């Protein structure tokens, strides 16, 4: 009798843990979906931007693509605006040693430094 009771208890515990794990898995899938949706929304917002003016100085803003990522560039303010996703991509490129992406970002910065130096002279 004890063995049947123990088996029943074990089965119920397993069912409880399976139910718990299923709920956690659903929650993780929902979180992943929400993050992917947010990433896609960010990309759409940045890619739909055409041109505008800085809220700080009124300087012109331009859409740029660097290493496959879209950023909003304000050369006069020496600033760029990017999504968190883009920043994460840059960090991953650095961690992975993605030379082509790193070189593209370096070229972007160098081009802007040279443009700024020319304006100063």
Task: Give a brief rundown of this model.
The chain has 3 helices and 4 strands, in the order H-E-E-E-E-H-H. With 121 residues, the chain is an alpha+beta fold.
Give an overview in words.
The chain has 2 domains: 1-48; 50-120, no CATH class. 68% of the residues lie in helices and 16% in strands. The chain is built from 3 helices and 4 strands, in the order H-E-E-E-E-H-H. The chain has helices at 2-48, 84-96, 99-120; strands at residues 51-53, 60-66, 69-74, 79-81. It has a 4-stranded antiparallel beta sheet. The longest helix is centred in the N-terminal third of the chain and has 47 residues, at 2-48. It is elongated and about 85 Å long. The model has no long low-confidence stretch (mean pLDDT 83).
Please report the number of helical segments: 3
Beta-strand percentage range: 15-25%
The SSE string, one letter per element, is: HEEEEHH
Structural class: alpha+beta
- Give the overall form: elongated
Indicate how many domains the architecture comprises: 2
Q: From the structure provided, what is the oligomeric state, counting identical versus distinct chains?
A: single chain
The order of strands across the largest sheet is: 1-2-3-4
First-residue to last-residue Cα separation: 94 Å
- Give the radius of gyration: 25 Å
* Major β-sheet profile: 4 strands, antiparallel
- Any low-confidence stretches, pLDDT <50, length ≥5? none
Strands, total number: 4
Helix residue percentage: 55-70%
Mean of pLDDT: 83
């Amino acid at each position: 009798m004890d063995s049947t009771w123990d088996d029943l208890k074990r089965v119920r515990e397993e069912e409880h843990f399976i139910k718990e794990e299923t709920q956690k898995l659903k929650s993780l899938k929902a979180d992943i979906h929400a993050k992917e949706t947010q990433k896609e929304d960010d990309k759409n917002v940045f890619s739909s931007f055409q041109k505008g003016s800085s809220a700080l100085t009124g300087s012109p803003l331009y859409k740029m693509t660097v290493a496959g990522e879209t950023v909003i560039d304000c050369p006069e303010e020496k600033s760029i605006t990017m999504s968190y996703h883009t920043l994460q991509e840059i960090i991953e490129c650095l961690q992975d040693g993605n030379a082509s992406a790193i070189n593209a970002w370096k070229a972007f910065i160098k081009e802007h430094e040279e443009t700024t130096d020319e304006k100063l002279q």
